[in-house]
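User: Here's a chain of 317 residues. Predict its fold as C-alpha cells.
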Amino acid sequence: MMRWIAAAAVTLTCAASALANDRVSYFPVKQGSGPHDVAPGLDGVVWYSGQRSGVLGRLDPKTGKDETIPIGSGSSPHGVIVGPDGSPWLTDGGLNANARYDLKTKKFEYFMLPPQQGYANLNTGVFDKDGIYWFTGQSGVHGYVNPKTGKHESWKSPRRGSYGITVTPSNEVWYVALAGDHLGRIDKATGNVDIVEPHKKGAGPRRVWSDSKGLLWVSFWHSGEVGRYDPAAKTWKTWPLPGNPGSGCYSVHVDEQDKVWLTDFMTNSIVRFDPATEKFESFPSSQRGAQVRQMLSRPGEAWGAESGNSRLVVVKY
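Assistant: Prediction complete.
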C-alpha cells in the first residue's frame, strides 16, 4: 500500500511538472552573446543585453527572429529597460556609460559617467513616474539621466555593491547593494541615501522590485530567500525558496497581479511566489546551467534570459 501511494505521488509530481513545462517556451539567441537582462518592448518584441558580445538584442517572439545591434567597442552591457517612448536603455559596464538606442535613427546615445568618478561597474536602470532614468553601479554608484534635457548626475553610494533598483507607486527610488548588504532609499533631490539593514547580516540583497502597494520584494543571494520589506511599518518578512540549500536566489520581479517571480541558480529554476497563499511554483529549465538573471513581464508573460544557454525564456500565466 505504501509503495502504491509513493508511486502515485511521483506520478502526480511528474504530471504537474509536465503541465508547468507546457507553459514555458525557449528562444535561442546569438550563441556566446551571454544574454543578461531582458525587457519586453511596447511593440511585442523583447530586448536583451548581450553582455559577453557587447550587443543589444532584439527578439521577435512571433517569428523567432533574433537581431543583434553592436553598442560600441569595449561594450559590456548588464541591464536593459524600456523607456516611456519605447526606446531601450542599457547600463554598460564596459563603456562606463548609460546608453539609449533611438528606434527612429537606429543609433545609440551615450551618457558617460564623469572620469573623476572612476569605473562604476554599471548594473541596473529603471524609470520613475516622471520619466527620469535611475541607475546603479556595483562599485558603489547611483545616479540619474533626464532624457528630456540630457542632464545626468551620479553620486557615491554609502556602501559598495549598488545593484538592483526599483520605483514604487509613490515614485520613490530604492536600490539594494549585494556587496554592501543593504536596502537604500535615494533622496532624488540630493542623492543622499537612507539605509535599511536586511533581516540578518550577510543575506546579500541582489535585486529589488515594488508591488502595487509599495511593498518592496528583495532577492537574497547569499541566504537563498525572498524577502518583503514594508517601508511604512519598517518590518521584514522572508521565505526560503523551495529545495534551495541556502544560496543562489538571483532576481526578483513583481507582475501586474502582484505575484513575485524569482530565479534560483541552485535548483536551475524560475520560481513564482504567491504572497496571498505563501506558496511557490517552480519552472525548472530544460537545460542545465540556465543562470536566469533579471526577469520582467508584460500581462500574462514573464520573461527571462538564460545567460548560461544563450536563450530567452517565457512563462505564460
